[in-house]
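USER:
Try writing one entry.

ASSISTANT:
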Amino acid sequence: MKRKNRINPKIVLCLIATAFIACVAIILIIQNNKNHISLSSVSKDGVEAIQLMEANPIAPIEEEIFQLQRQEIIRKLMEDPDRVFQTLADTNTVIIGDSRVVGFSAYNCMDESRILAGTSWSIMELPAVFDTVTAINPRFIVVAFGVNEIGQQLGTPVYFNTDESYVEALDYYLGLLQECAPNARIYYSSILPASEEGLASMDGFTIIPERNKAIKAFCEEKGYGFIDTEEIAYEHQEMYREDGIHFTADFYPLWGEAILNEIIRTGGIV
């Protein structure tokens, strides 16, 4: 008499569990697709929707799908400079700095109410905007000084002739700025280098790369964000103006993208 083959109960349980997991995965994918964020209107609504999704714990498979959607949203966002600058405005970001920063409003990238800057300004002019910062109460503050602190022309006094002295000034002034907006996250946008024409007018600009290293180390130690912009300047020498220090309008979308990328990476807006 032949013995009947018995099915191993453990195998049956494994098959049932696998089928159950597959069904749950399909349901989650369908549900996630229902909640899919439109890529055609990524700005304030898109950012708020993603923030809401991030605030709620989700299963691993949902997390994977969410991250793919998030990456696609960011990619689409960065394709359109208008969206980049609108998102910076929608997330209550202000940019403070010298004449290079003035270009954000001069070239109509952002409303001048969010660009707190002036020609020949240095970090020592920062207190001039404290009242405005308090009134705006921004979520993100981007500070972009440094070139005037090195010296404007050959033979003029150097404001901070060592990296240590400039870092000490940053510690003091950024601390005061934080008091004006205690809930804001402060970022320092690295000093943009000069082109060959700029170096010819002021050879002191050669210290910029080393000074940026000192600033980055300071920011990491103190908990400020740091936005590295050196590479985009080196890659786009054609976007310098004749003086080799300032930039044409084409550079500002690249700068804005660098700012938003770092805020997205560390600030939690999407």
